[in-house]
Design brief:
Layout: H1 2-30, H2 40-68
Helix pairs in contact: 1-2
């Protein structure tokens, strides 16, 4: 049971990382992103980058931890 839960967490994290990898370029090209002003595009890209910067190390750490067991 514990092993299945770890695998599902890994899949969720992988899904987040892949979604961020797809959505960031899409948001940058479709929304207005300006470094000197706060726009909707800037907020969306910032949120996606923060989510990705948290999910990617968590995903890598979970795979590393699973490999040690």
């Amino acid at each position: 049971m514990d092993d299945a839960r770890r695998r599902s967490h890994g899949r969720i994290l992988l899904g987040i990382v892949l979604a961020v990898a797809v959505l960031v370029p899409l948001a940058v090209t479709q929304l207005e992103v300006r470094p000197d002003r706060i726009t909707v595009g800037t907020v969306v890209v910032t949120v996606l980058l923060v989510a990705g910067s948290i999910a990617l190390p968590a995903f890598l750490f979970s795979r590393w931890q699973a490999a040690e067991r």
